[in-house]
Amino acid sequence: MISGSPSRPDWFDDDPAQAEVYEGFLDEMNGSWVWLWRDVGETLGHSIGQYSALLTPERVGAGVSDPGWDVHHGDGAPGFARYSDRGTWTTVYERFPLEGAEVLVYDRIWHGVRPSDVELAEEFRLLFNLWEDRATRTYYDFDGSGSPIKVAVITDEGVRVLCSYVRRYQAAKQMYLALYLDSTRWSDDLPGDDHAWDEVDPEAVLSYYRHSDPLEGRPFSRLFGKRLFPPPPMEASGVWPFERNKNYQEFVIGTTDVGEEITFASNPAELANYFGANPGNPHYLTPVYFRREVLNKYYADSDRFSVEDGYLRCAGLWGLRIDNDQAGHVMVFLGDLGRDIPEAEARYWRSFNIPPPEEGPSKTLIRRAFGAQFADPQSVDLRFPRIYRQTNEAWESAFGKPLFKPLHADDRHVLSKLHVPLTDGAAEFDEQVLYLAKLLVDSINEEALTDRIGKGPSGEKGLGKLERFLTDLGVSDARTLLGPFANVQGLRSRGAAHRKGSTFDVTVAIGELGRQKGFEELLRAASSTLETLREVAQRHAASQ
What we know:
Helix content: 25-40%
Strand content: 25-35%
Protein backbone atom coordinates (compact mmCIF):
# COMPACT_ATOMS: atom_id res chain seq x y z
CA MET A 1 0.00 0.00 0.00
CA ILE A 2 2.64 2.51 1.02
CA SER A 3 5.50 1.53 -1.26
CA GLY A 4 3.31 1.48 -4.35
CA SER A 5 0.16 3.36 -5.32
CA PRO A 6 -2.38 2.73 -2.54
CA SER A 7 -5.81 1.56 -3.54
CA ARG A 8 -8.57 4.06 -2.96
CA PRO A 9 -10.58 3.10 0.14
CA ASP A 10 -14.24 2.39 -0.49
CA TRP A 11 -15.36 4.91 2.16
CA PHE A 12 -13.62 7.96 0.66
CA ASP A 13 -16.70 9.57 -0.91
CA ASP A 14 -18.82 8.98 2.20
CA ASP A 15 -16.30 10.53 4.64
CA PRO A 16 -14.22 13.26 2.93
CA ALA A 17 -12.89 14.65 6.24
CA GLN A 18 -11.38 11.29 7.19
CA ALA A 19 -10.18 10.85 3.60
CA GLU A 20 -8.18 14.07 4.00
CA VAL A 21 -6.64 12.77 7.24
CA TYR A 22 -5.82 9.47 5.56
CA GLU A 23 -4.02 11.15 2.66
CA GLY A 24 -2.11 13.44 5.03
CA PHE A 25 -0.98 10.45 7.09
CA LEU A 26 0.24 8.64 3.98
CA ASP A 27 2.15 11.77 3.05
CA GLU A 28 4.09 11.85 6.35
CA MET A 29 7.83 11.37 5.75
CA ASN A 30 7.40 12.32 2.09
CA GLY A 31 8.10 15.97 2.80
CA SER A 32 10.47 17.91 4.97
CA TRP A 33 8.63 17.66 8.30
CA VAL A 34 6.79 14.95 10.22
CA TRP A 35 4.43 14.95 13.21
CA LEU A 36 5.92 12.86 16.03
CA TRP A 37 3.24 13.94 18.49
CA ARG A 38 -0.02 15.67 17.66
CA ASP A 39 -3.22 16.39 19.47
CA VAL A 40 -6.01 18.22 17.69
CA GLY A 41 -8.70 18.33 20.34
CA GLU A 42 -12.29 17.89 19.26
CA THR A 43 -13.06 20.61 16.75
CA LEU A 44 -16.42 20.54 15.00
CA GLY A 45 -16.82 16.97 16.16
CA HIS A 46 -13.42 15.80 14.87
CA SER A 47 -10.37 14.88 17.00
CA ILE A 48 -7.00 13.79 15.61
CA GLY A 49 -4.12 12.25 17.52
CA GLN A 50 -0.70 11.20 16.22
CA TYR A 51 2.20 9.61 18.04
CA SER A 52 5.47 7.87 17.26
CA ALA A 53 8.01 5.38 18.53
CA LEU A 54 11.10 3.46 17.53
CA LEU A 55 10.72 -0.31 17.39
CA THR A 56 13.46 -2.93 17.37
CA PRO A 57 13.69 -5.21 14.33
CA GLU A 58 12.77 -8.11 16.63
CA ARG A 59 9.54 -6.45 17.68
CA VAL A 60 8.62 -5.64 14.09
CA GLY A 61 9.54 -9.15 13.04
CA ALA A 62 7.10 -10.58 15.56
CA GLY A 63 4.25 -9.20 13.46
CA VAL A 64 2.45 -5.92 12.86
CA SER A 65 -1.04 -7.09 11.92
CA ASP A 66 -2.75 -5.28 14.80
CA PRO A 67 -3.69 -1.65 14.01
CA GLY A 68 -3.51 -0.80 17.71
CA TRP A 69 -0.68 1.39 18.95
CA ASP A 70 2.43 -0.27 20.37
CA VAL A 71 2.96 2.62 22.79
CA HIS A 72 0.65 5.14 24.43
CA HIS A 73 0.85 8.63 25.84
CA GLY A 74 2.61 8.51 29.20
CA ASP A 75 4.67 5.43 28.30
CA GLY A 76 8.44 5.34 28.17
CA ALA A 77 9.49 6.97 31.44
CA PRO A 78 12.24 5.16 33.36
CA GLY A 79 11.36 3.29 36.53
CA PHE A 80 11.45 -0.04 38.32
CA ALA A 81 10.07 -3.37 37.21
CA ARG A 82 9.53 -6.54 39.21
CA TYR A 83 9.80 -10.10 37.92
CA SER A 84 8.85 -13.32 39.63
CA ASP A 85 10.72 -16.55 39.05
CA ARG A 86 9.22 -19.50 40.99
CA GLY A 87 8.08 -17.27 43.77
CA THR A 88 11.26 -15.20 43.97
CA TRP A 89 10.80 -11.54 43.11
CA THR A 90 13.54 -9.48 41.42
CA THR A 91 13.39 -5.68 41.19
CA VAL A 92 15.37 -3.94 38.45
CA TYR A 93 15.68 -0.37 37.23
CA GLU A 94 14.89 0.13 33.53
CA ARG A 95 15.68 3.23 31.55
CA PHE A 96 13.49 2.09 28.65
CA PRO A 97 10.78 -0.07 30.20
CA LEU A 98 8.88 -0.72 26.96
CA GLU A 99 9.85 -4.05 25.46
CA GLY A 100 11.47 -3.38 22.10
CA ALA A 101 10.13 0.19 21.86
CA GLU A 102 11.26 3.72 22.64
CA VAL A 103 9.11 6.83 22.44
CA LEU A 104 10.40 9.93 20.67
CA VAL A 105 8.26 12.43 22.56
CA TYR A 106 7.54 12.12 26.28
CA ASP A 107 4.35 13.29 27.93
CA ARG A 108 5.06 15.22 31.14
CA ILE A 109 2.02 15.22 33.43
CA TRP A 110 1.76 16.82 36.88
CA HIS A 111 -1.95 16.12 37.42
CA GLY A 112 -3.08 19.73 37.59
CA VAL A 113 -0.32 20.94 39.92
CA ARG A 114 1.44 22.32 36.87
CA PRO A 115 0.33 22.40 33.22
CA SER A 116 1.07 19.23 31.28
CA ASP A 117 3.82 19.39 28.70
CA VAL A 118 5.70 17.35 26.11
CA GLU A 119 9.43 16.84 25.71
CA LEU A 120 11.56 15.68 22.80
CA ALA A 121 13.58 12.57 23.65
CA GLU A 122 16.86 13.50 25.34
CA GLU A 123 18.92 11.02 23.33
CA PHE A 124 17.69 12.55 20.07
CA ARG A 125 18.62 16.03 21.28
CA LEU A 126 22.04 14.95 22.54
CA LEU A 127 22.99 12.90 19.48
CA PHE A 128 22.66 15.96 17.25
CA ASN A 129 23.70 18.44 19.98
CA LEU A 130 20.56 20.50 19.43
CA TRP A 131 20.21 23.96 20.94
CA GLU A 132 16.82 25.00 22.26
CA ASP A 133 15.40 28.48 21.85
CA ARG A 134 13.24 28.25 24.94
CA ALA A 135 11.17 31.31 24.07
CA THR A 136 9.85 29.66 20.90
CA ARG A 137 10.43 26.00 21.89
CA THR A 138 12.41 25.47 18.70
CA TYR A 139 15.45 23.20 18.46
CA TYR A 140 18.36 23.99 16.16
CA ASP A 141 21.39 22.27 14.77
CA PHE A 142 24.16 24.37 13.21
CA ASP A 143 26.05 23.89 9.98
CA GLY A 144 29.79 24.18 9.58
CA SER A 145 29.63 27.99 9.64
CA GLY A 146 27.24 28.26 12.55
CA SER A 147 24.11 28.97 10.49
CA PRO A 148 21.05 27.60 12.32
CA ILE A 149 19.14 24.60 10.98
CA LYS A 150 15.62 24.34 12.40
CA VAL A 151 15.19 20.70 13.44
CA ALA A 152 12.16 20.52 15.74
CA VAL A 153 9.32 22.75 16.91
CA ILE A 154 6.96 22.21 19.84
CA THR A 155 3.62 24.00 19.55
CA ASP A 156 0.23 23.72 21.22
CA GLU A 157 -0.80 21.34 18.46
CA GLY A 158 2.17 19.01 18.74
CA VAL A 159 5.78 18.24 17.89
CA ARG A 160 7.10 18.50 14.33
CA VAL A 161 10.59 17.36 13.41
CA LEU A 162 12.69 17.56 10.27
CA CYS A 163 12.33 14.20 8.50
CA SER A 164 16.01 13.93 7.65
CA TYR A 165 16.99 14.06 11.32
CA VAL A 166 14.45 11.40 12.27
CA ARG A 167 15.85 9.16 9.53
CA ARG A 168 19.42 9.83 10.69
CA TYR A 169 18.39 8.97 14.24
CA GLN A 170 16.89 5.71 12.98
CA ALA A 171 20.10 4.98 11.12
CA ALA A 172 22.19 5.48 14.25
CA LYS A 173 19.96 3.26 16.40
CA GLN A 174 19.00 0.77 13.64
CA MET A 175 15.38 0.79 14.73
CA TYR A 176 12.10 1.06 12.82
CA LEU A 177 10.09 4.25 12.97
CA ALA A 178 6.41 3.74 13.79
CA LEU A 179 3.96 6.57 13.15
CA TYR A 180 0.56 6.17 14.80
CA LEU A 181 -2.81 7.74 13.94
CA ASP A 182 -6.17 7.88 15.71
CA SER A 183 -8.80 10.09 14.08
CA THR A 184 -12.40 10.08 15.35
CA ARG A 185 -15.25 12.08 13.84
CA TRP A 186 -18.88 12.58 14.85
CA SER A 187 -21.16 14.03 12.20
CA ASP A 188 -24.76 13.86 11.03
CA ASP A 189 -23.34 14.05 7.51
CA LEU A 190 -22.01 10.49 7.80
CA PRO A 191 -24.12 7.65 6.39
CA GLY A 192 -26.08 5.82 9.04
CA ASP A 193 -25.02 2.33 7.95
CA ASP A 194 -22.19 0.40 9.58
CA HIS A 195 -19.04 0.01 7.56
CA ALA A 196 -15.61 -1.54 8.18
CA TRP A 197 -12.39 -1.42 6.16
CA ASP A 198 -8.89 -2.75 6.87
CA GLU A 199 -5.64 -2.71 4.98
CA VAL A 200 -2.48 -4.51 6.07
CA ASP A 201 0.94 -4.79 4.45
CA PRO A 202 4.52 -4.94 5.77
CA GLU A 203 4.68 -1.15 5.98
CA ALA A 204 1.27 -0.21 7.37
CA VAL A 205 -1.74 -1.44 9.27
CA LEU A 206 -4.79 0.82 8.99
CA SER A 207 -8.40 0.31 10.03
CA TYR A 208 -11.58 2.29 9.47
CA TYR A 209 -15.04 1.70 10.84
CA ARG A 210 -18.23 3.68 10.94
CA HIS A 211 -21.55 3.28 12.76
CA SER A 212 -24.07 5.17 14.88
CA ASP A 213 -23.07 5.98 18.45
CA PRO A 214 -25.89 4.74 20.72
CA LEU A 215 -24.96 7.35 23.35
CA GLU A 216 -24.60 10.33 21.01
CA GLY A 217 -27.39 9.22 18.76
CA ARG A 218 -25.46 10.22 15.67
CA PRO A 219 -23.00 8.47 13.32
CA PHE A 220 -19.28 8.47 13.97
CA SER A 221 -16.21 7.15 12.16
CA ARG A 222 -12.76 6.17 13.34
CA LEU A 223 -9.56 5.83 11.34
CA PHE A 224 -6.60 4.44 13.21
CA GLY A 225 -3.43 2.42 12.75
CA LYS A 226 0.28 2.78 12.10
CA ARG A 227 2.95 3.02 9.47
CA LEU A 228 6.43 1.50 9.66
CA PHE A 229 9.69 2.75 8.17
CA PRO A 230 12.78 0.54 8.23
CA PRO A 231 16.03 2.22 9.23
CA PRO A 232 18.49 3.48 6.62
CA PRO A 233 22.03 2.06 6.76
CA MET A 234 23.98 3.13 9.84
CA GLU A 235 26.32 5.20 7.65
CA ALA A 236 23.39 7.51 6.84
CA SER A 237 23.42 8.85 10.40
CA GLY A 238 26.10 11.36 9.40
CA VAL A 239 27.55 11.11 12.91
CA TRP A 240 31.20 10.24 13.53
CA PRO A 241 32.67 8.05 12.15
CA PHE A 242 30.09 8.32 9.38
CA GLU A 243 30.45 11.98 8.46
CA ARG A 244 29.49 12.62 4.89
CA ASN A 245 32.28 12.83 2.35
CA LYS A 246 33.28 16.37 1.53
CA ASN A 247 32.99 17.56 -2.06
CA TYR A 248 35.96 19.76 -2.90
CA GLN A 249 35.39 22.86 -4.97
CA GLU A 250 37.50 23.63 -8.02
CA PHE A 251 39.12 27.07 -8.12
CA VAL A 252 40.74 29.15 -10.84
CA ILE A 253 44.50 28.99 -10.39
CA GLY A 254 45.63 30.44 -13.73
CA THR A 255 44.80 31.05 -17.37
CA THR A 256 46.11 29.69 -20.64
CA ASP A 257 47.83 31.86 -23.21
CA VAL A 258 44.43 32.39 -24.88
CA GLY A 259 42.69 33.38 -21.65
CA GLU A 260 40.95 30.11 -20.74
CA GLU A 261 40.70 29.45 -17.03
CA ILE A 262 42.80 26.72 -15.45
CA THR A 263 41.05 25.13 -12.46
CA PHE A 264 41.94 22.45 -9.94
CA ALA A 265 40.14 20.88 -6.99
CA SER A 266 41.14 22.02 -3.51
CA ASN A 267 41.39 18.50 -2.03
CA PRO A 268 44.63 18.58 -0.02
CA ALA A 269 45.11 14.85 -0.60
CA GLU A 270 45.47 15.48 -4.34
CA LEU A 271 47.89 18.42 -4.15
CA ALA A 272 51.65 18.41 -4.32
CA ASN A 273 53.67 19.38 -1.26
CA TYR A 274 57.29 19.73 -0.14
CA PHE A 275 57.47 16.04 0.73
CA GLY A 276 56.96 14.63 -2.76
CA ALA A 277 53.24 13.98 -2.81
CA ASN A 278 51.31 14.10 -6.09
CA PRO A 279 54.11 15.26 -8.40
CA GLY A 280 52.79 17.14 -11.41
CA ASN A 281 49.72 18.46 -9.59
CA PRO A 282 49.40 22.03 -8.30
CA HIS A 283 51.09 22.67 -4.97
CA TYR A 284 49.17 23.00 -1.72
CA LEU A 285 50.43 26.59 -1.51
CA THR A 286 49.14 27.59 -4.95
CA PRO A 287 47.69 31.12 -4.60
CA VAL A 288 43.97 31.51 -5.36
CA TYR A 289 42.59 35.04 -5.74
CA PHE A 290 39.20 36.59 -4.99
CA ARG A 291 37.48 39.93 -5.29
CA ARG A 292 37.58 41.78 -1.98
CA GLU A 293 33.78 41.77 -1.85
CA VAL A 294 34.05 38.15 -0.69
CA LEU A 295 34.60 39.57 2.79
CA ASN A 296 31.28 41.46 2.86
CA LYS A 297 29.44 38.44 4.24
CA TYR A 298 31.85 38.16 7.14
CA TYR A 299 31.99 41.85 8.02
CA ALA A 300 28.18 41.90 8.03
CA ASP A 301 27.86 39.10 10.60
CA SER A 302 30.35 40.00 13.31
CA ASP A 303 28.56 37.85 15.90
CA ARG A 304 29.86 34.76 14.10
CA PHE A 305 32.75 35.96 11.95
CA SER A 306 35.87 38.00 12.57
CA VAL A 307 38.02 39.40 9.77
CA GLU A 308 41.49 39.85 11.23
CA ASP A 309 44.94 40.64 9.95
CA GLY A 310 45.71 37.60 7.80
CA TYR A 311 42.96 35.45 9.25
CA LEU A 312 39.21 34.83 8.91
CA ARG A 313 37.57 33.24 11.95
CA CYS A 314 34.14 31.64 12.31
CA ALA A 315 33.47 31.58 16.08
CA GLY A 316 35.17 28.42 17.36
CA LEU A 317 34.18 26.37 14.31
CA TRP A 318 36.91 27.10 11.77
CA GLY A 319 39.58 29.56 10.72
CA LEU A 320 41.14 30.36 7.36
CA ARG A 321 44.48 32.00 6.62
CA ILE A 322 43.92 34.82 4.15
CA ASP A 323 46.06 37.49 2.54
CA ASN A 324 43.91 40.59 2.98
CA ASP A 325 46.77 43.08 2.91
CA GLN A 326 46.55 43.77 -0.83
CA ALA A 327 44.24 46.55 -1.99
CA GLY A 328 42.78 44.87 -5.06
CA HIS A 329 42.03 41.35 -3.94
CA VAL A 330 42.12 38.64 -1.27
CA MET A 331 44.37 35.60 -1.65
CA VAL A 332 44.07 32.13 -0.07
CA PHE A 333 46.21 29.05 -0.61
CA LEU A 334 44.47 26.31 -2.61
CA GLY A 335 45.03 23.62 0.01
CA ASP A 336 43.70 25.79 2.83
CA LEU A 337 40.46 26.30 0.89
CA GLY A 338 39.97 22.54 0.89
CA ARG A 339 41.19 21.83 4.40
CA ASP A 340 39.87 24.68 6.52
CA ILE A 341 36.39 25.74 5.44
CA PRO A 342 33.09 23.86 5.03
CA GLU A 343 31.83 22.85 1.63
CA ALA A 344 29.13 25.53 1.56
CA GLU A 345 31.70 28.24 2.33
CA ALA A 346 33.96 26.98 -0.46
CA ARG A 347 31.06 27.34 -2.91
CA TYR A 348 30.54 30.89 -1.70
CA TRP A 349 34.21 31.75 -2.21
CA ARG A 350 34.17 30.21 -5.69
CA SER A 351 31.63 32.83 -6.82
CA PHE A 352 34.24 35.57 -6.14
CA ASN A 353 37.18 33.69 -7.67
CA ILE A 354 39.30 35.61 -10.22
CA PRO A 355 42.37 34.69 -12.28
CA PRO A 356 45.73 35.60 -10.75
CA PRO A 357 46.14 39.41 -10.88
CA GLU A 358 49.33 41.23 -11.77
CA GLU A 359 50.00 42.33 -8.16
CA GLY A 360 50.18 38.81 -6.73
CA PRO A 361 50.39 38.16 -2.97
CA SER A 362 51.15 41.00 -0.61
CA LYS A 363 54.68 41.59 0.68
CA THR A 364 53.32 40.94 4.16
CA LEU A 365 52.17 37.46 3.17
CA ILE A 366 55.46 36.65 1.48
CA ARG A 367 57.48 37.68 4.53
CA ARG A 368 55.23 35.76 6.91
CA ALA A 369 54.56 32.58 4.94
CA PHE A 370 57.85 32.11 3.12
CA GLY A 371 60.33 34.19 5.10
CA ALA A 372 59.12 33.12 8.56
CA GLN A 373 59.32 36.77 9.59
CA PHE A 374 57.12 38.93 11.78
CA ALA A 375 55.56 41.60 9.57
CA ASP A 376 53.07 44.33 10.30
CA PRO A 377 50.28 44.73 7.75
CA GLN A 378 50.45 47.63 5.33
CA SER A 379 46.70 48.18 4.98
CA VAL A 380 45.59 50.96 7.28
CA ASP A 381 42.35 49.26 8.29
CA LEU A 382 44.30 46.21 9.50
CA ARG A 383 46.66 48.42 11.51
CA PHE A 384 43.99 50.73 12.94
CA PRO A 385 42.62 48.44 15.72
CA ARG A 386 46.12 47.94 17.14
CA ILE A 387 46.92 51.66 16.99
CA TYR A 388 43.58 52.52 18.62
CA ARG A 389 44.15 50.10 21.52
CA GLN A 390 47.77 51.16 22.03
CA THR A 391 46.79 54.82 22.21
CA ASN A 392 44.05 54.09 24.72
CA GLU A 393 46.42 52.01 26.87
CA ALA A 394 49.08 54.75 26.77
CA TRP A 395 46.56 57.38 27.94
CA GLU A 396 45.29 55.18 30.75
CA SER A 397 48.87 54.57 31.87
CA ALA A 398 49.79 58.28 31.71
CA PHE A 399 46.61 59.94 32.94
CA GLY A 400 44.82 57.22 34.90
CA LYS A 401 41.86 57.08 32.49
CA PRO A 402 41.65 55.93 28.87
CA LEU A 403 41.16 58.50 26.12
CA PHE A 404 38.21 56.55 24.74
CA LYS A 405 35.51 54.98 26.89
CA PRO A 406 34.90 51.23 26.42
CA LEU A 407 32.33 50.46 23.80
CA HIS A 408 28.88 49.42 24.96
CA ALA A 409 28.18 45.69 24.64
CA ASP A 410 25.84 46.40 21.72
CA ASP A 411 28.68 48.26 19.94
CA ARG A 412 31.47 45.78 20.55
CA HIS A 413 31.35 44.81 16.89
CA VAL A 414 32.32 48.31 15.70
CA LEU A 415 36.10 47.96 15.84
CA SER A 416 36.09 44.54 14.18
CA LYS A 417 33.75 45.70 11.38
CA LEU A 418 35.70 48.86 10.58
CA HIS A 419 37.39 48.57 7.19
CA VAL A 420 38.12 50.41 3.99
CA PRO A 421 34.93 50.06 1.91
CA LEU A 422 35.07 47.12 -0.45
CA THR A 423 33.26 49.11 -3.12
CA ASP A 424 32.80 52.80 -3.94
CA GLY A 425 29.11 52.83 -3.01
CA ALA A 426 27.56 55.40 -0.69
CA ALA A 427 25.87 52.89 1.66
CA GLU A 428 29.05 51.14 2.76
CA PHE A 429 30.89 54.47 3.00
CA ASP A 430 28.19 55.92 5.29
CA GLU A 431 28.27 52.81 7.46
CA GLN A 432 32.05 53.01 7.91
CA VAL A 433 31.89 56.74 8.69
CA LEU A 434 29.38 55.97 11.46
CA TYR A 435 31.69 53.31 12.91
CA LEU A 436 34.68 55.65 12.82
CA ALA A 437 32.68 58.46 14.46
CA LYS A 438 31.63 56.13 17.29
CA LEU A 439 35.25 55.23 17.92
CA LEU A 440 36.92 58.64 17.55
CA VAL A 441 34.25 61.18 18.53
CA ASP A 442 31.40 59.61 20.48
CA SER A 443 33.72 57.54 22.67
CA ILE A 444 35.94 60.42 23.87
CA ASN A 445 36.11 60.18 27.65
CA GLU A 446 34.66 63.63 28.35
CA GLU A 447 34.21 63.01 32.08
CA ALA A 448 37.88 62.15 32.52
CA LEU A 449 38.96 65.22 30.56
CA THR A 450 36.67 67.49 32.57
CA ASP A 451 38.08 66.09 35.81
CA ARG A 452 41.54 67.32 34.78
CA ILE A 453 40.82 70.62 33.04
CA GLY A 454 37.50 71.68 34.53
CA LYS A 455 34.29 72.68 32.79
CA GLY A 456 34.67 74.68 29.63
CA PRO A 457 32.33 76.93 27.67
CA SER A 458 28.64 76.05 27.62
CA GLY A 459 27.92 73.41 24.98
CA GLU A 460 31.55 72.32 24.63
CA LYS A 461 31.70 68.79 23.19
CA GLY A 462 34.26 66.04 23.36
CA LEU A 463 36.57 67.31 20.63
CA GLY A 464 36.60 70.78 22.19
CA LYS A 465 37.50 69.32 25.58
CA LEU A 466 40.26 67.20 24.03
CA GLU A 467 41.67 70.24 22.17
CA ARG A 468 41.72 72.25 25.42
CA PHE A 469 43.35 69.36 27.27
CA LEU A 470 46.10 69.03 24.64
CA THR A 471 46.71 72.78 24.65
CA ASP A 472 47.16 72.69 28.44
CA LEU A 473 49.73 69.95 27.92
CA GLY A 474 51.68 72.22 25.59
CA VAL A 475 50.73 70.53 22.32
CA SER A 476 51.09 73.09 19.58
CA ASP A 477 48.20 73.60 17.16
CA ALA A 478 45.99 70.95 18.79
CA ARG A 479 43.11 71.89 16.51
CA THR A 480 45.08 70.92 13.41
CA LEU A 481 46.16 67.67 15.07
CA LEU A 482 42.51 66.76 15.71
CA GLY A 483 41.48 67.77 12.18
CA PRO A 484 40.90 64.17 11.00
CA PHE A 485 38.58 63.57 13.96
CA ALA A 486 36.67 66.74 13.07
CA ASN A 487 36.39 65.59 9.45
CA VAL A 488 34.89 62.32 10.60
CA GLN A 489 32.42 64.18 12.79
CA GLY A 490 31.51 66.47 9.90
CA LEU A 491 30.95 63.60 7.48
CA ARG A 492 28.77 61.85 10.02
CA SER A 493 26.73 64.97 10.82
CA ARG A 494 26.30 66.17 7.24
CA GLY A 495 25.69 62.89 5.52
CA ALA A 496 25.99 59.48 7.16
CA ALA A 497 23.67 60.02 10.13
CA HIS A 498 21.14 62.40 8.55
CA ARG A 499 19.27 63.03 5.34
CA LYS A 500 21.68 64.55 2.86
CA GLY A 501 20.75 68.08 1.87
CA SER A 502 21.31 69.82 -1.42
CA THR A 503 24.50 71.41 -0.08
CA PHE A 504 26.10 68.10 0.97
CA ASP A 505 29.42 67.54 -0.76
CA VAL A 506 31.48 64.54 0.28
CA THR A 507 34.55 65.97 -1.43
CA VAL A 508 34.86 68.60 1.32
CA ALA A 509 36.30 65.90 3.58
CA ILE A 510 37.78 63.37 1.16
CA GLY A 511 38.63 65.42 -1.89
CA GLU A 512 38.28 63.96 -5.37
CA LEU A 513 39.55 60.50 -4.45
CA GLY A 514 36.17 58.77 -4.41
CA ARG A 515 34.58 57.17 -1.38
CA GLN A 516 36.76 54.07 -1.21
CA LYS A 517 40.16 55.78 -1.49
CA GLY A 518 38.85 58.82 0.36
CA PHE A 519 37.88 56.77 3.39
CA GLU A 520 41.23 55.01 3.28
CA GLU A 521 43.02 58.38 3.44
CA LEU A 522 40.66 59.55 6.20
CA LEU A 523 41.48 56.43 8.20
CA ARG A 524 45.18 56.93 7.53
CA ALA A 525 45.03 60.50 8.80
CA ALA A 526 43.06 59.42 11.88
CA SER A 527 45.64 56.71 12.57
CA SER A 528 48.42 59.29 12.35
CA THR A 529 46.58 61.47 14.88
CA LEU A 530 46.18 58.47 17.20
CA GLU A 531 49.89 57.71 17.00
CA THR A 532 50.72 61.33 17.87
CA LEU A 533 48.28 61.20 20.80
CA ARG A 534 49.99 58.04 21.99
CA GLU A 535 53.36 59.81 21.86
CA VAL A 536 51.90 62.73 23.82
CA ALA A 537 50.80 60.33 26.56
CA GLN A 538 54.15 58.52 26.58
CA ARG A 539 56.08 61.81 26.88
CA HIS A 540 53.84 62.93 29.72
CA ALA A 541 54.33 59.62 31.55
CA ALA A 542 58.11 59.86 31.11
CA SER A 543 58.17 63.39 32.51
CA GLN A 544 56.43 62.48 35.75
